[in-house]
Amino acid sequence: MPDGFHSTPDDLATHSGTMSKLGGRLDAASKKGAGVDLGIETYGIIGQAFSTSAREQISQTAEAMTDVASAFTDFGTDVKAAGQHYEKIEDEIKQLLKSLHTEE
Fold this sequence. Notes:
The chain is an all-alpha fold and about 100 residues long. Helices cover about 85% and strands about 0% of the residues. The chain is built from two helices and no strands. α1 (about 10-35) packs antiparallel against α2. The mean pLDDT is about 90.
């Protein structure tokens, strides 16, 4: 990006909302996936040895999805806070410039 990166607090608030929604959707999917019960007999007697591994993989995948969902939500919260901070700093700079201008 030769011209740098341009963003507004509104852009950041929108992105924050998107990330939080994605986190919520991923969390719901992880809970749904974690609830899958293969049962030890899903693959028949011969496949019982494989069902244990498959159940472990389902559990690990659901855990990983929950972790990522939490990270998305946290990221969304932090992006929103950054936008609010930028806005606060901009307001403070405006007030400072106004006060300097009125002193002249």
